Amino acid sequence: LAAAVQSAQVELGVSAEVSANALLKLARDGASATEAVNALGGVLSYAKANFQDSSTAAEQLGGILDSFGERPAIIGKLADALTATAKASGTTSEALAKGLQGIGLAADEAGLSVNQTVALLGQLATRNIEGTAATKQLVTILGQFRDPASAAGKALTDLGLSGQSFTEILG
């Protein structure tokens, strides 16, 4: 742990206290010591890129991982995807994070990965639908795809696509 904190000081220019707080948040969120150390650089880089403190960044990213049932091993890729999608879609990583924290179960049931869900929320953000509003819209869409009685479900049945996951339909 000490080596990770020292490395963060040298490579990212953050204090030992900032690094220790991020490690503590990751550990409290269920990461092992090894997972927390491996995720530290991604969390701190995300925090700096998005003008957040490290504890907030660790909490945000950890909440998304929890929502999707993912382990901290993907935290760096998740942080990069959030930052890039926010920039490309004209929203904030915070708005995307809030959306992701509320949609994990519905996305999982639809067969969507974290990255696919980030991309979908990014698309909604380009249409000024962000945060909890985007979550509600996407949950509704995913629910309609699963519901054979909905208009979307009936259309899928007519096309011979009923019973397929959302990702299979999008191909």
Tell me the layout of helices and strands.
Elements (H helix, E strand, L loop, with lengths): L1 H11 L3 H13 L4 H17 L4 H15 L6 H15 L3 H9 L2 H6 L4 H12 L5 H16 L4 H8 L7 H5 L1
Summarize the entry for a quick read:
This protein has helices at 2-12, 16-28, 33-49, 54-68, 75-89, 93-101, 104-109, 114-125, 131-146, 151-158, 166-170. It has eleven helices and no strands. 74% of the residues lie in helices and 0% in strands.
Could you characterize what this model shows?
The chain has 171 residues and is mainly α. The chain has eleven helices and no strands. Helix 2 (16-28) packs across helix 3 (33-49) and helix 6 packs across helix 9. The longest helix has 17 residues, at 33-49. The model has no long low-confidence stretch (mean pLDDT 88).
Main features:
0% strand, 171 residues, mainly alpha, 11 helices
Q: Indicate the radius of gyration in whole angstroms.
A: 18 Å
**Helix-strand string:** HHHHHHHHHHH
Uncertain residue segments: none
Helix content: over 70%
Shape: elongated
* Strand element count: 0
Largest sheet: none
First and last CA, distance: 43 Å
Our estimate of the beta-strand percent is: under 5%
What count of helical segments does DSSP give?
A: 11
